[in-house]
Amino acid sequence: MNVAVLGFGVVGSGVCEVxxxxxxxxxxxxxxxxxxxxxxxxxxxxESPFAAHFVKDFAHIESDPSVAIVVxxxxxxxxxxxxxxxxxxxxxxxxxxxxxxxxxxGCELMRLAQEHGASYLFEASVGGGxxxxxxxxxxxxxxEITEICGxxxxxxxxxxxxxxxxxxxxxxALSEAQAKGYAExxxxxxxxxxxxxxxICILASLAYGWRIDPSSVPTEGxxxxxxxxxxxxxxxxxxxxxxxxxxxMGDGKICVYVAPHFVKRSDPLAGVEDVFNSITVxxxxxxxxxxxxxxxxxxxxxxxxxxxxxxxxxxxTQFKQVLWTEAEEEMAISPAxxxxxxxxxMKCSPDWAKSRFPGASMLARPGAPTDEVxxxxxxxxEGELREILKDETVYHVLRVL
Amino acid sequence: MNVAVLGFGVVGSGVCEVxxxxxxxxxxxxxxxxxxxxxxxxxxxxESPFAAHFVKDFAHIESDPSVAIVVxxxxxxxxxxxxxxxxxxxxxxxxxxxxxxxxxxGCELMRLAQEHGASYLFEASVGGGxxxxxxxxxxxxxxEITEICGxxxxxxxxxxxxxxxxxxxxxxALSEAQAKGYAExxxxxxxxxxxxxxxICILASLAYGWRIDPSSVPTEGxxxxxxxxxxxxxxxxxxxxxxxxxxxMGDGKICVYVAPHFVKRSDPLAGVEDVFNSITVxxxxxxxxxxxxxxxxxxxxxxxxxxxxxxxxxxxTQFKQVLWTEAEEEMAISPAxxxxxxxxxMKCSPDWAKSRFPGASMLARPGAPTDEVxxxxxxxxEGELREILKDETVYHVLRVL
Lengths: 401, 401
Known about the structure:
Chain A is an alpha/beta fold. The first copy, chain A, has three domains: about 140 residues, Rossmann fold; about 160 residues, Dihydrodipicolinate Reductase, domain 2; about 60 residues, Alpha-Beta Plaits. In chain A, strand 10 and strand 11 form a beta hairpin. In chain A, helix 2 packs parallel to helix 12, helix 5 runs parallel beside helix 10 and helix 7 packs across helix 8. At the A-B interface, helix 1, helix 2, helix 6, strand 11 and helix 12 of A face helix 1, helix 2, helix 6, strand 11 and helix 12 of B. Strand 11 of chain A pairs antiparallel with strand 11 of chain B.
């Protein structure tokens, strides 16, 4: 079975490497050899062991009937979107790690695949090599999913880990993440939470069957997380973690958002450090199930892509279905309807905080200015909190998981 | 699509409950309704909402061509084995939670299923509701699995948690586990490690493609774990956990065993408490991936059974294959070939221990007798250790993970 890889970047080159290195294993599992026939890239790679496979024009791949599987590891929504549509229309199955494209056009592309008897698979789009798309859509299929909560971005988790463990500032942590190749030069997609947002939207769409549009999801990154916040969290036996959450409400709507949270040290999510990701799925029958592993990286992500290719080669019919559809009304609602305790760092006196938030837990940190107070409120709605704080100087507010 | 459930015990009744409670969800995911037609049990359940479905003779089910799926939740290898063979021979797919039967006759039953165009699925046999069978055989298919290591038995993990956290003795912990319904009256399968052994054999068979026979696997339970051992572990920043391990050796053989281990508190496995299970799978591409959740219990296990039924209803071809075969030579080898550090508790002087094990870490615990010493050896082979200790009074030896 012939394969074409679009984009010879980190993931694309990893796919070529896994296909070559584990050739025997892959053939045994797939029931047929997966032959790398083309690699599409505008760049030249004369030194690559795969140099003979490079082409520059997608039409080569599109018009070759011997290519059964196209691996799209280009990223972005422009050329990737166009080539995916053309490949599916030509009856070729497409495997991708492109979360942006799935979150934006997943519905349409799954439908297009179905119309042309092809598959459109995307295990690698969330959690890198962690099996999560298949387990959610298959193994947990008997459950009503009540909540999904995850650390979905390895870069920001690495940065928070370094800030918490080693006292680095945000900027220092970012520089280190960039030096190690975990963060890009333009790190906005990671640090502003957009990457986590796309992933929680994919998981929520899968769990609930409705497309959740990333642009409708309140998204807060880690730009405003300071060492002061980390100090208060520590005194409350918490770590600060960037979480994507999707919570099913009583009316069937889904509360979806991305934000940094206080997470109790005893919670398994607090133990997820460095570039690791972890996703907890709660089902009415199964209870909490957690998936943990490297959420990114060349070979882990490639391993998920190749697993999808093996499924296609085996002729699995499992994924020849449209896993979610466009809802007629907006299914994602604001976390304003989700009550929780809140951490607040603000300019006030402890007495003021205690009088306005009876039952609040007062926090302490070394070196706090005398007019700064950190505390955790009782469980309440965000609107109530904002109303009390509306005329005050508030430095930061975070939810407590 | 009509369904028959064999055995109305904990899991069987849970399956009936999930099918009824999540009927709409199940039908949507399966693409067809799953109708509970028969329940086979020798007992009477006149008060059950499912009373009308009970039959006492398997021939009823076997001879009804409208029954497409048989759920075997009887346990054991006698009647369960016979009925499974007869159901598969009649072309019916079988879903089971019966790890004993899979570990003993999985090969033969998968072959029989294949011959008759049926499926034989067993997601619920390991890890209760935790998705592990499918993720291993599908999502990690591109990997060479280098190691599987897991807390596979909820009962013993609950007991160890109570011993570590609350200072209960083995007997007290067992009584509490029995009172809570976690342990059976005859707890040997749990506390002697046989249940963990069957599960690691299933996982190893799946990962490596060869049948691993439980009777060939060295299995040590938690009967000999004392509060003294737990005290020494604590001083070494470790918890004692009962682990099943399968490690791929250089020659393709697999070192499989079950034993209590010292596990560093910083290891994610150490954070797995109470009745929870956790399985870490290491692959050459994906690195370490961990799966965590309730490893047993009525609804979690039922949720895995129903997921398998949904797959069959969807017509997935995925599992119409024989996932492992009988090897011509024994593939499982003894852990004697696996070097590690060892914890030793014995009668000797600290000086004796230091002289015989240069570089050993000496441990301490409150209330230790003056002639007792606890220490952790450097990394070595078990044979070397046993040779040094052969004439001594040794209370307990455990591997350090």
